[in-house]
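Expect chain and fold; thus:
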Amino acid sequence: MDAQIQSLAETLWDYHLMKQQVAKADAIMVLCSHDERVAERGAQLFLDGFAPLIIFAGGHGAITKRLWQEPEAERFARIAISLNVPRESILIEAESTNTGENIAFTKRLLVEKGLDPHKFIVVQKPYMERRSYATFRKLWPEKEVVVTSPQVSFGSYLAEYANRALSVADVVSIMVGDLQRIKIYPARGFQIEQEIPEHVWHAFERLVHAGYDKYLIQPQS
């Protein structure tokens, strides 16, 4: 990745990061994916006493269905248990395949368990903070939420955090795809509106032009 592409990608990275302040909550909701460091971040928040309950949400997503046989949530829960999170403090939602389903299916699971947490900490990949926040606020507006992620720079994330099955180009392409979703999903009822500054959208367009378009949603016919 040359310096120009890296600069454009960092513009998207900085926009996706919301940098919200984590405070004590009723539940930690970990949105699972290919990035196992997200599981570690959720586990650490639990062990630091930020909430008494941790929920792992995720089945087989578009990427992980070709990486792992087990659901994302099962894998993430196993990581948390290995870090000394008690099994009895964990709930697993292992059927969802996207962010909207993560939230909708978790709502259903909590009803089934007779639980009604009000304040949530949502844990996600750094470049999916904003989209996760926008989705949660749309689908569960009566709850309070802050979003967080592994505390790491863009360069360190590429070097250390991304799943080894994904290339740097894959990570940049996923960020590009997520920004497109932030723009178009509110009209589809999936997210609240989020302002996209002109310089961020310009960086998006240049990255698409440079070929980082693998995870874009194609126009509906």
